[in-house]
C-alpha cells in the first residue's frame, strides 16, 4: 500500500510534468478540483457497494453492476445514495466513466463539463449541503480557458492527462489514514511556493500555522473555530491536528473567503480531511465589507467562537469601499476606524469582535501594527487599555513566499486578569535558510510555544511588559523597545593590546568553562602581571584537556545513557505501531519527553536536543512508521520496490526499472553492515583506480609543460579539441602510433609504454569495478528478501538512531567549544603587543632598505 510520501511525490511530479508553462496558481484549481471529484466518485461507488452488499475489490465489476441497477431503480437508488452522502453521481458521470472513455478513445471534454453540472443538480437541501454547492464553478474549473490549451484538442489532452494521474488512486482508503488530506495539503503548499506572490491568497506557511495553532489549541477549550480570511483552510486544519481526537469530532469550523476559487479549495480541503459537511460553514464573501456570521437575534454582538485564527492580506489598501462607519459594532470598541490605506487593524477588530469571552485569537500581521501612529496608534492604545493584547511574537522576515517583510503573531484574549503583563517574544533571529526563504525549525516553534505557555522571561528573547512600561513607551509595542539584543562583542582592552596578556575579567565571563572545568582552566594559564594572564599551552591541547576532563566525561556518559534508555523505551512501540492515526500522537509524546529528560542537564540547550528527535521524525520515522502501520515491521523490512529512473529527454523521455530498493531499509545500510568485506574490496579497487588516474594526470602535465625530446611524442599523443587545442586526456590511437614509431628501449619509448599500460590498467579497473558493483548490488537486492528478524532490528536501529547518541553527547561539548572559540579569539587578539608590532615593522623596514641598496640603477 502506498504511503503519504509516495502519493505526494507522485502527484507533485505529475503536476510538474503535465502543467508545462501554465501558471501554478491556476493549474492548482484544475488538479485539486479533479482530484476532489475522484474522491466524490469513489465515495458514490463505495456507498453503492455497501447498499448492494457487493464489496468486490474489482472496480470495473462494481461499475457495471451500478450501471445495470441504476437503469432499473434509478430514482430509488439516487435518492438512497443522496440521503447518505448529500449528493449522488450517476454512472455516466462518474470519474471512472471518464477513465473508461479515455481507454476506449471516446473521451470528450464536454463529458467533464456535463458531469460537473449534473453533480450540482443532485445536491440535497440537507444540513451541510451548502458546502457542496458551486464547488466546480467556472471560476474554479473553467474548461474553456485558453491557459489550459490554445484549442479544444490541447485542452482535452491536458485534462485527460490529469484524469489519468488520479485514475488508480483509491481515495476512500487513502482518506482513512488522512493520507489523502495530507497529500492535498502538501500540493497546496507546493503550488504556493511555485506561485510566489500569488500564494498569499490561499496559503499560510506551515511553520507560521504551527505557532498559531499550537498556542490556540493549548490555550482554550475549543468547540468552534473561525477564520475570517480562510484561504485554503490550512490554519483551521492545523488547529484541528493539535486537538484531542474527541475534540476533533465535535469541532465546528467557520470561515469566509473572498476569492471564489480559493473558497472552493477551502471546502474541498476540509472535506478531504474528514470534516463532515454539517460541521463546517464556509462562506464566499468579503469579510470587512459585510460582517459574517451574524446572529439575527443579537445583531450588535455577532456570533462568537472559542478560537479565531487569521492570516489576512497585509496592509490592504482601500479596504473600506463599503463606506463603513465607526458605529459598526466591530469597530465601536476602537472608537476610530483604521486608515483606509491599511486594513490590518480592520481585520484584527473583526476577529476580536467574534472572539468568545473565554477564547483565544491568533492573527499574523506586518510588524508595522506595533508602532504606526495616528488612528492605528489610537486603536492599539484602546486594545491595551482594555487588556485584550496578550502576547506579541516577532517572527523572522522572508517566511512567506508573497512578501519578505517581517511579521508578528498577536495573541488576543478577553478574559485576561487585571494588570497581567503583555508577553513579548523576539523570535526574529531564530531561523535557517531554505532556498530563498527563511524557515523556522521545529525547535524554534517549540521554544516560542513553551515561552508562551510558561510566560517566561529569557534575556534577549522574551519579556513581560507591565502597564507602566507600556505607558512609558506611549503604547508603542515595537519589540526592540522591550527586548535588547544581546551584544556578544567583547570590548577591546587597551592595556592588553599595549603590554599583552588576556584580561582576567574576560576569562570570568566564560561561565560554562568556569563552572564545569574550573581546575583544568586555571591550570592552563600563568600570570603576566596583575589581572592579566597567558596560556601555557596551545588552544588545541587545552580543548583536548577540557573534553577529557573527568566531569565532562561523566556528563557525556550520563547523557549517552539517557539517550539509550529513551530509545529503548520507544523502540518496541515504534516497531509495533499498527494504526496510522496514532503516529502523530506518538511523535508528540517523544518530543515532549526528550525536553523533560534534558532539563536535568545544566548548560545544555534543550531545544537543540528537541531538534535531534524532530529531525529523526522528519527524515525517517514519519514515513517509516506509516509503512510499518500498513504492513508490519518485519514484513516491510523484507520488502523491496522497483528502482525507477528517468532516461532520455523531451519526446524520448521514459521511465525504466534499474534494480530494487529496500522498502524500509536502504540498500546502502545493508551493504555497509552485511557486506563489509565486499565493500572493503570495492574500496581497494577504487583506490587503485584513483592512483592510476593520478599517474596518468602526472604524465599529461609533464607532456604539456616539459619541452624535452622524450616528451614530444607524449605531447603529440594528447587529444585535441575542435580548435586543435590539447586537452587533459590521451588519444589512445595516437598514443599507439607514437609507440610503434618510437625506438624500443629509449626514454621516449618507455614513457609512451608507461602511458599505454596505465590507460589499459585504468580500463581494466573500471570494468572490474563496474562488474563488482553490479554483482554486489544484485546480492544486496536479493538479501533484502531473506533478512532475519535480528538483522532487520539492527539495520533499522542503525537507520533511525545510529547517530543519535553521538548527537546528544555533542550537546554537552557544544557550549564548551563555543567558549573555547571565544578564548581562542582573545588569545589571538592580545598575542602581539604594540612593542612586538613595532619590532616587526622595524625588521621589515630594515629588509626593505637592504633590498633598495642592492638594486642596480641602469642609466
Structural features, described:
With 859 residues, this protein is an alpha/beta fold. Helix content is 55%, strand content 11%. The protein has a 9-stranded mixed beta sheet, sandwiched between helices. The protein has a 3-stranded antiparallel beta sheet with strand order 12-14-13. Helix 1 (4-19) runs antiparallel to helix 6, helix 22 runs antiparallel to helix 23 (583-598) and helix 24 (606-631) packs antiparallel against helix 32. It is globular and about 105 Å long. The protein starts with a helix and ends in a 5-residue tail after the last helix.
How does the SSE layout of this entry go?
Blueprint: H1 4-19, H2 24-52, H3 59-85, H4 95-104, H5 109-122, H6 152-166, H7 171-176, H8 179-195, H9 206-219, E1 224-227, H10 234-241, H11 245-250, E2 252-257, H12 260-272, E3 280-284, E4 305-310, H13 344-353, E5 355-366, H14 374-385, E6 389-394, E7 407-412, E8 422-426, E9 432-434, E10 437-439, H15 442-454, E11 462-465, H16 467-472, H17 494-499, E12 502-503, H18 504-508, H19 511-516, H20 518-523, E13 525-529, E14 532-535, H21 539-547, H22 550-575, H23 583-598, H24 606-631, H25 633-637, E15 640-647, E16 654-662, H26 667-674, H27 676-705, H28 709-716, E17 718-720, E18 726-730, H29 732-741, H30 747-784, H31 789-801, H32 804-829, H33 834-854
Parallel strand pairs: 1-2, 1-4, 2-3, 4-5, 6-8
Antiparallel strand pairs: 5-7, 6-7, 8-11, 9-10, 12-14, 13-14, 15-16, 17-18
Helix pairs in contact: 1-6, 1-8, 2-3, 2-6, 2-8, 2-12, 8-12, 9-10, 9-15, 15-24, 21-32, 22-23, 22-32, 23-24, 24-32, 27-28, 27-30, 28-30, 29-30
Amino acid at each position: 500500500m502506498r504511503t503519504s510520501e509516495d502519493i505526494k511525490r507522485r502527484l507533485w511530479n505529475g503536476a510538474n510534468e503535465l502543467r508545462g508553462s501554465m501558471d501554478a496558481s491556476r493549474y492548482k484549481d484544475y488538479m485539486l478540483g479533479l482530484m476532489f471529484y475522484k474522491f466524490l466518485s469513489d465515495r458514490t461507488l463505495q456507498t453503492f457497494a455497501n447498499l448492494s452488499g457487493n464489496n468486490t475489490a474489482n472496480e470495473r465489476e462494481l461499475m457495471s453492476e451500478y450501471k445495470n441497477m441504476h437503469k432499473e431503480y434509478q430514482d430509488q437508488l439516487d435518492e438512497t445514495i443522496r440521503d447518505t452522502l448529500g449528493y449522488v453521481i450517476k454512472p455516466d458521470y462518474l470519474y471512472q466513466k471518464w477513465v473508461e472513455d479515455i481507454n476506449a478513445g471516446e473521451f470528450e471534454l464536454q463529458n467533464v463539463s456535463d458531469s460537473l453540472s449534473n453533480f450540482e443538480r443532485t445536491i440535497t437541501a440537507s444540513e451541510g449541503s451548502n458546502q457542496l454547492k458551486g464547488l466546480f464553478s467556472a471560476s474554479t474549473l473553467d474548461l474553456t480557458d485558453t491557459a489550459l490549451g490554445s484549442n479544444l484538442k490541447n485542452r482535452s489532452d491536458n485534462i485527460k492527462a490529469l484524469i489519468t494521474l488520479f485514475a488508480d488512486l483509491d481515495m476512500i482508503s487513502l482518506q482513512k489514514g488522512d493520507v489523502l488530506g495530507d497529500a492535498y495539503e502538501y500540493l497546496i503548499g507546493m503550488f504556493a511556493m511555485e506561485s510566489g506572490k500569488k500564494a498569499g491568497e490561499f496559503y499560510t506557511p506551515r511553520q507560521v500555522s504551527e505557532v498559531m495553532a499550537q498556542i490556540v489549541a493549548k490555550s482554550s477549550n475549543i468547540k468552534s473555530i473561525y477564520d475570517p480570511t480562510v484561504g485554503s483552510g490550512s490554519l483551521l486544519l492545523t488547529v484541528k491536528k493539535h486537538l484531542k481526537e474527541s475534540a476533533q469530532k465535535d469541532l465546528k469550523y467557520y470561515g469566509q473567503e473572498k476569492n471564489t476559487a480559493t473558497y472552493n479549495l477551502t471546502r474541498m480541503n476540509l472535506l478531504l480531511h474528514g470534516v463532515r459537511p454539517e460541521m463546517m460553514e464556509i462562506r464566499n464573501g468579503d469579510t470587512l465589507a459585510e460582517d459574517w456570521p451574524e446572529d439575527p437575534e443579537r445583531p450588535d454582538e455577532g456570533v462568537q467562537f472559542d478560537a479565531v485564527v487569521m492570516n489576512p492580506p497585509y496592509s490592504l489598501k482601500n479596504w473600506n469601499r463599503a463606506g463603513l462607519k465607526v458605529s459598526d459594532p466591530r469597530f465601536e470598541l476602537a472608537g476610530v476606524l483604521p486608515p483606509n490605506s491599511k486594513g490590518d487593524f480592520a481585520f484584527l477588530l473583526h476577529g476580536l469582535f467574534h472572539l468568545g469571552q473565554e477564547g483565544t485569537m491568533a492573527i499574523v500581521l506586518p510588524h508595522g501594527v506595533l508602532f504606526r501612529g495616528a488612528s492605528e496608534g489610537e486603536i492599539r492604545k484602546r486594545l491595551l487599555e482594555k487588556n485584550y493584547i496578550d502576547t506579541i511574537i516577532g517572527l523572522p522576515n522572508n517566511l512567506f513566499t508573497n512578501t519578505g517583510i517581517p511579521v508578528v503573531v498577536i495573541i488576543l484574549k478577553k478574559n485576561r486578569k487585571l494588570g497581567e503583563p503583555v508577553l513579548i517574544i523576539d523570535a526574529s533571529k531564530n531561523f535557517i535558510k531554505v532556498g530563498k526563504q527563511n524557515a523556522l525549525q521545529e525547535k524554534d516553534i517549540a521554544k516560542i510555544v513553551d515561552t508562551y505557555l510558561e510566560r517566561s522571561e529569557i534575556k534577549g528573547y522574551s519579556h513581560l511588559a507591565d502597564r507602566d512600561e507600556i505607558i512609558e513607551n506611549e503604547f508603542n509595542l515595537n519589540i526592540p523597545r522591550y527586548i535588547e539584543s544581546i551584544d556578544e562583542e567583547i570590548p577591546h582592552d587597551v592595556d592588553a593590546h599595549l603590554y599583552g596578556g588576556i584580561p582576567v575579567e574576560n576569562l570570568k565571563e566564560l561561565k560554562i568553562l568556569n563552572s564545569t572545568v574550573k581546575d583544568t582552566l586555571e591550570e592552563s594559564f600563568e600570570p603576566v602581571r596583575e589581572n592579566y594572564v597567558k596560556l601555557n599551552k596551545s588552544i588545541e591541547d587545552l580543548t583536548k584537556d577540557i573534553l577529557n576532563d573527568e566531569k565532562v566525561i561523566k556528563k557525556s556518559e550520563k547523557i549517552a545513557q539517557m539517550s539509550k534508555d529513551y530509545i529503548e523505551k520507544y523502540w518496541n512501540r515504534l516497531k509495533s505501531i499498527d494504526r496510522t492515526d496514532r503516529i502523530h500522537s506518538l511523535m508528540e509524546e517523544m518530543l515532549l519527553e526528550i525536553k523533560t529528560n534534558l532539563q536535568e542537564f545544566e548548560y545544555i540547550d534543550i531545544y537543540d536536543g528537541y531538534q535531534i528527535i524532530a529531525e529523526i521524525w522528519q527524515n525517517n520515522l514519519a514515513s517509516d512508521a506509516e509503512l510499518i502501520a500498513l504492513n508490519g515491521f518485519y514484513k516491510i523490512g523484507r520488502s523491496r520496490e522497483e528502482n525507477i529512473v528517468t532516461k532520455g529527454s523531451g519526446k524520448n523521455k521514459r521511465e525504466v526499472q534499474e534494480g530494487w530498493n529496500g522498502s524500509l531499509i536502504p540498500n546502502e545500510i545493508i551493504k555497509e553492515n552485511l557486506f563489509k568485506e565486499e565493500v572493503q574490496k570495492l574500496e581497494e579497487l577504487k583506490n587503485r583506480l584513483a592512483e592510476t588516474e593520478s599517474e596518468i594526470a602526472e604524465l599529461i602535465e609533464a607532456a604539456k609543460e616539459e619541452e624535452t625530446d622524450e616528451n614530444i611524442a607524449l605531447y603529440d599523443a594528447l587529444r585535441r579539441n575542435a580548435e586543435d587545442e590539447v586537452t587533459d586526456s590521451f588519444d589512445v590511437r595516437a598514443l599507439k602510433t607514437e609507440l610503434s614509431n618510437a625506438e624500443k628501449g629509449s626514454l621516449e619509448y618507455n614513457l609512451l609504454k608507461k602511458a599505454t599500460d596505465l590507460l589499459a590498467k585504468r580500463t581494466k579497473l573500471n570494468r572490474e569495478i563496474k562488474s563488482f558493483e553490479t554483482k554486489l548490488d544484485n546480492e544486496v537486492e536479493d538479501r533484502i528478501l531473506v533478512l532475519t528478524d535480528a538483522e532487520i532490528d539492527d539495520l533499522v536501529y542503525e537507520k533511525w538512531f545510529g547517530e543519535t547518541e553521538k548527537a546528544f553527547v555533542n550537546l554537552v561539548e557544544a557550549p564548551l567549544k563555543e567558549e573555547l572559540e571565544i578564548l581562542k579569539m582573545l588569545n589571538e587578539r592580545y598575542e602581539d603587543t604594540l612593542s612586538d608590532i613595532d619590532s616587526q615593522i622595524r625588521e621589515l623596514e630594515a629588509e626593505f632598505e637592504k633590498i633598495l641598496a642592492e638594486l642596480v640603477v641602469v642609466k
